[in-house]
Amino acid sequence: MAPTVPLAVLALVALVAPGLGVAPGCDYPAPRWCSSRDTAVTCKVESRCPNLPHPAAAPVQLSLYYESLCPACRDFLVMKLFPTWLLLPEEMLNITLVPYGNAQERNISGKLDFECQHGPEECLGNMMEACLMNEAKNFSTYFPVIFCLESGSSVTKNLEACLQIYAPEVDSGRISACVQGDTGVALMHHNAQVTDALDPPHQYVPWITVNGKHTDELQAQAEASLLGLVCQLYQGEKPEACGGSKAPKLPSGCRR
Questions:
Q1: Of 66, 78, 130, 148, which has the maximum CB count within 10 A?
Q2: Which of 81, 83, 93 is nearest to 57 (CA)?
Q3: Bridge partners of 3?
Q4: What value does the mean pLDDT take over residues 123-142?
Q5: Residues 36 and 143 placed together within one structural domain of the fold
Q6: pLDDT-based confidence at 55, cuts 50/70/90?
Q7: In DSSP terms, which residues pair with 213 in a beta bridge?
Q8: What pLDDT, on a 0 to 100 scale, did the predictor assign at position 7?
């Protein structure tokens, strides 16, 4: 006795492929047409498959150009960026950190050197955080450590303690070797190039780009309510955290 074909499948075949015909390129049997979005698209039956998952939306891309000792940079990273990152699902927000800011790169007798707005201590902090990112690789590993450094009493003296709390698997000795060697200089040179290539050129820090763009309006929105801005721009399903947010005004930035 022949197997019974579900009525839903028969209805689908009758509606989409009269005469048992199928869409060109569809090599799947009718019961599998709604098994995935790709299959449904190939067989031209998307509208007949109500339970298909929605395609994932692209994350909002946010880049922060900052200095390790700039008060406004530290406030934005600690009070706005880190809490927003904690509240939102990973696939919703992609963050790039570029510690350099208003520093100046110099070539002295064939060797690169850096002069920072808030002095040598800031240059050290910038390089430490760049080396931390290079060593840890994973954003979810190094961002809490950077948050710890920037929210503490000393950006440059609390690395060991912050690693013990947030990333004990990261070797502080390798970060120190990076800072003292050629790798740290190369990382800062890269950050200098990326910062100098900004269009429009940065005028202050923190300097924020959203989806590759910087405007006065985006900067103001990010500083006023970063969570609200990301929720507004994200095209996928909104999480509960996107119920709205307001924040106190941040200190003015560190101008060049």
A1: 66
A2: 93
A3: none
A4: 98
A5: no
A6: low
A7: 210
A8: 43
